[in-house]
Amino acid sequence: xxxxxxxxxxxxxxxxxxxxxxxxxxxxxxxxxxxxxxxxxxxxxxxxxxxxxxxxxxxxxxxxxxxxxxxxxxxxxxxxxxxxxxxxxxxxxxxxxxxxxxxxxxxxxxxxxxxxxxxxxxxxxxxxxxxxxxxxxxxxxxxxxxxxxxxxxxxxxxxxxxxxxxxxxxxxxxxxxxxxxxxxxxxxxxxxxxxxxxxxxxxxxxxxxxxxxxxxxxxxxxxxxxxxxxxxxxxxxxxxxxxxxxxxxxxxxxxxxxxxxxxxxxxxxxxxxxxxxxxxxxxxxxxxxxxxxxxxxxxxxxxxxxxxxxxxxxxxxxxxxxxxxxxxxxxxxxxxxxxxxxxxxxxxxxxxxxxxxxxxxxxxxxxxxxxxxxxxxxxxxxxxxxxxxxxxxxxxxxxxxxxxxxxxxxxxxxxxxxxxxxxxxxxxxxxxxxxxxxxxxxxxxxxxxxxxxxxxxxxxxxxxxxxxxxxxxxxxxxxxxxxxxxxxx
Length: 489
Description:
Layout: H1 3-14, H2 26-54, H3 59-75, H4 78-81, H5 93-114, H6 119-136, E1 163-169, H7 185-198, E2 202-204, E3 207-208, H8 214-221, H9 228-232, E4 243-245, E5 253-255, H10 259-262, E6 269-273, E7 277-278, E8 285-290, H11 308-317, H12 322-333, H13 344-348, H14 350-363, E9 369-374, H15 392-395, H16 402-429, E10 436-441, E11 460-463, E12 472-473, E13 477-478, H17 479-487
Parallel strand pairs: 1-9, 1-10, 2-12, 3-13, 5-7, 6-8, 6-9
Antiparallel strand pairs: 2-11, 4-5, 10-11
Helix pairs in contact: 1-2, 1-3, 3-5, 3-6, 7-16, 11-12, 14-16
């Protein structure tokens, strides 16, 4: 077989389609092309020359490796590999991926070694087809982020309407949760409680979520499901209701039904959301601000490594390939980069997100509902004692004890309130804070221990428009009941 075919095989195998899908400047694209294409192809050609000169069948090792590499780059195999092979699960997505990769490369090697000489031609034809298909396959293109401006949905709204701000802080344990029973836990919770008392919020100390998974918890709460049994009985053959898996690569789930948005006085809704749940398909939504790690305007808090390298590594991991995940993880581990991707990037850009919500409130005077789902203080961790970003806490999560995680979680909660306070102060300066009804709650607790014996105690704070005092409520009440009671008023 001639050298030209081997060369072409390398060119097809190493070409990085993902480089062109992440809103990068030409300069950035050229840098990535150099490191992920020019250099690998050069190495490939040198290896080929060596093996072909010596007529060694060891070339099959190299061909097996690059064949798996191109399959990985084009099929984004991490999503498959992280679960293991058949019934073999090593309880780590990285170990599972190593096993999957090893078995796959060995299998490809045997194809080359024991098959006829035209095996490479057959595999090359297959690789060429998926390569061409991947060029024209657009789901991972930056342009597929949910549309921001949905002004065609705008409705006429009456004067003197009530404006409501709903903020869901994901995975935030409540003020009476077992997470409080560690060093500084009760002190931090008291500081949070005092803060909301000062701002005239009603505080529900013993509020709880019906479920400990976001899709079940928010799906039930936003559709006014009152009990676990009522939710289960919707369809006993399904565990999750009101959601579909999204066809959009940049969104995990689509919320199909949302009775909270349906309420007649909720009009011209503006949404701030993560990449986990899309709330924006509702016909009343006029602005959809989804967290976008590749937005050139995105800014981060102090301590975050907002560098070109962090961006490049995050873009690469977004491709979903096994190799990209290991590359991304290694760069984080040696503290060379931080990650822009959700949920880490969302925590690091929390001030930017609050500023975005502020601008929405300030610039939209005919909106009655501002709704946000923010993946903070969700794991992995990221705040230090000064509430600056510390990426070392992100990678050390799995090496921490339950007690250490609870101590850090309480700090993360307190830091979130610090950034929330900055946001509230800006609202007060434009005289919007008093005019807003504000509901703040969480979808579930920290989940450091998965047990039915752990109370799913979460935060729930509520401020009426022009509220002058705070009421402490110690009743055990679900967020579903509270949201229904407050939302339908």
